[in-house]
Fold this sequence. Notes:
Layout lengths: L2 H19 L8 H23 L7 H23 L3 H10 L2 H9 L1
Helix pairs in contact: 1-2, 1-3, 2-4, 2-5, 3-4, 3-5
Amino acid sequence: xxxxxxxxxxxxxxxxxxxxxxIGIDTLTVEQRKQHQQSLSAAYLALVxxxxxxxxxxxxxxxxxxxxxxxxxQRLQREVSGLPTPHEKLEAVAQGVAVFGRIAQLL
Length: 107
């Protein structure tokens, strides 16, 4: 992973977080609200860690693992931005939420 790819990863994380943030919880069931909160928290932690991380300070191990995770986030970002309803967006992110935890740990 190079520095430009790292910037793209940050942008994609931010876009997924923004899509989650914009979901009105008043339209969600109790279970979906829990799912939303978990997804939003994981995305936020990954976003904060990515914003504070400096590419030059990442370990070689992190740089080697991040490309695979970046492709998952990019896929999630495309899926979420193309889905029409908040419920579908939440479901798409909830299925891939583990990627945000892995990114947060690496950074």
